[in-house]
Amino acid sequence: MSMTNQADFNTSLFAAPDTIVVATDLTDMAELLPHAIAQAKTAHAVLKIVHAIAPEMTYDPESGMIPGPDPLKASRDARLRMLEISHQVEQQGVSCSTAVRHGFAADVIAEVVHETDAGRVLARTHGRRGIKRLALGSVTLQLLQHLDVPVCTIGPRCAGVSNAGLHRILHPTGLGPDCDATAHLALDLAQDSRAELTMLYVLREETAVEPYLDPDYSFERLESLLPAMRGDLWSPVRTRIAAGNLEEEILRCAKDTSADLIVMGVHPAQSFWPGHSGGKTAYAIMAAATCPVLSFRVPAGYSMMTSQPEQHACVLG
């Protein structure tokens, strides 16, 4: 699903996707699968479970390097495991297909998303540090740079799945000129699930500039993101302003509201990389949240605010 301009953009397609691509390394299915099944049932979607077998560099034994695992055996073992997973999913009443391909994870996932016209990608995050964290951030960065669909991450602190579905959604926003897209996505998700939506803006004195330090302006801007006929909405929408550290306030609000889902917009061009301060914030939210985090790249056709990169770094929509 590729959106190339604002006129073609329709967040309702992402709120209730026909196909959800589930990216797995086959060690994370115990945590990932319940969320995948729950999201598929909520959206009445089919699942496409994807496993990428990374290319291994095999050298001549004389070089002293140890050859990588047999790619044929790795593929065979992965396909057998995928058959088991597919059977588990279908027992829950959800249509499912699988794919095992050789290649780098981000490339394989993007390829499958394009082929299936999927409206969401679901993946597990492990809260790792150092090099492993950097690799995970690299894959996430590539997906957000090249996919025009939301990426939902399940972190290590994510609570179990409720059979009752979504009840409360948190949407932190940077109030930038392109925040409308993700706000509409959060609103569509709330309406489809009859869930309460909380719109959050965090005042940060160390980086904010006028008029973003003005609480009155912030409230007005939050309200402007909502439909004029607010009383006709199927579920309540609340606005909230906090002051302090961006990561801490988002996580605190998610806890206070017992959020089932966090929806946030990102600009990967503004250093989503885990070593950057903005990237660390987004990664930390994904890794520390006790609910799934749906991250969405602002679509092509929405102008970026280049004069205030610190204010809108990473968490935008």
Automatic annotation (TrEMBL):
Cross-referenced CDD domains: USP-like (cd00293)
Origin: domain of life: Bacteria
Residue span(s) of domain UspA: 18-151, 167-294
Pfam name, any one: Usp
PANTHER family in alphabetical order: STRESS RESPONSE PROTEIN NHAX, UNIVERSAL STRESS PROTEIN UP12
Family: Belongs to the universal stress protein A family.
Protein's UniProt name: Nucleotide-binding universal stress UspA family protein
Organism listed in the record: Acidipila rosea
